[in-house]
Design a protein that fits this description.
This protein folds into two domains: 64 residues, no CATH class; 361 residues, Rossmann fold (3-Layer(aba) Sandwich), CATH 3.40.50. The protein is globular. The protein is of the alpha/beta class and 518 residues long. The strands form three sheets. A nine-stranded mixed β-sheet has the order 3-4-5-8-6-9-10-12-13, with helices on both faces. 31% of the residues lie in helices and 16% in strands. It has 15 helices and 13 strands.
Amino acid sequence: MKNMSLTGSAGFVLAVCSLILFCPPFYAQTVPGEARRNLPQPLTFTSEQDHQNMMDQLGIKEIRPAPSPKTANYDESKANPFPNLPDALTLKDGQKVTSPEVWWRKRRPEIVEAFEREVYGRIPQNVPKVTWSVKATDKEIIGGRPVIAKELIGHVDNSSYPLISVDIRMTLVTPADARKPVPVLMMFGPSGFPAPNEPSDADFDRINAAMKALLAKEDPSLAKVFGEHPAFQLVRRPPFQFPRFDVDGNPPRKWQLIADKWGFATIDPLSIQADNGAGLTRGIIGLCNQGQPRKPDQWGALRAWAWGASRGLDYLETDPAVDAKHVGIEGVSRYGKAALVTMAFDQRFAMVLVGSSGKGGATPFRRNFGEAVENLTGVGEYHWMAGNFLKYGASEAVFGSKNAGDLPVDSNELIALCAPRLTFISYGVPAKGDAQWLDHQGSFMAAVAASPVFEILGARGLDVSGDYHTAKMPPVNDGLLDGQLAWRQHDGGHTDAPNMKYFLKWADKFIGHTPPGQ
């Protein structure tokens, strides 16, 4: 990202000017003292304190210790202590799902209810409305192609509890020369202008002259310093930086999207909900709970990030540059988990690219390989999940003990909730940094187990021989891309970038999008 670099006291001058020009008046943010006194003050917990609070609510005395990447099991012969995944096409009463109608009317709601209650949490009914505004629009160049970039703010109505504010940050980028609305891939990650349009050289000279005059007026002795160093510039144009191409010569993901006449939106998860347990009394979860701790069945950060992505889609559905029927969601690692959760719960998303997601994403909880359920119930990661999920890491509790085998659902059913929409599961290789910890084999097994749901809904699952117990994971770079459910392991690291060109070609085929020059 190109930015003007500031030196000396100029940064202070600009910071002061920014506060004056862009901050709303203080009185607009205040709440009458009497009203504030009547509101419960938000609790300030550490992650450890919040974790203990949830254990106390659930009657848990002891949580099993979590393995580390060094102590985890990587022996495939020990990887399946609970060898059978829940059958997505068997109702709770034991009846088989034999038609799409039964899936939509009975089985899918059962699975959703179990995931909400035990795994990712319920979204409260009192979630406030989000109002979107365009903060700024910029004409930029990405990969040599003109684009329109919009910086967006989704303000969450906090009138019922003004002590917590939530403003969702999202940036939408679309090809400037598109003749019709374009498909868009929403991407979890930092949000901001990708290639800000900078002032001309003449404008840089004017900015420097004005800033020098302002500083010399504040401190007349600086006039001599500037006179002795006439070439010194307070604001400089940053040097040109070449984009990073991958080992196969592929350009950055955003370049590929724009070149294919797609748009993209970057949405910042941390503007929705913090990525730690201490933040659970803040962010959108804290706002809905008026700064108080969660109840056991309430949402965790993964579901909160997914909720934020859905609110971003609300905006995209109103933007004339966007083909709202073909909006996808993407993320890597913990944001890969969030992307899959988003797709599973919001059927308006047409496609998903799930990058290296591991436990809580595409990899089965029941697998004992690398990351474990106990990692998701420990202090470091429990905030991603519903409070109830802690039960499955409990070694001693009022209800006895539970483990992964007691979970009513698993990742194959999370993938199945995406059916029959376009679902692409992506992984890299351990040798390049996509660690064994993520259990690539497990994610493949879950995708195979989800395939029958795609097929009963008239879509195509993974084309493999055997069921999830016996199917062989394809070689690296040999993807299964013929159906609406796709799986591909690339030869890169902890990223989905090497799979972007395959994702675009695959998605274009199914949505009928014709890239330029074809």
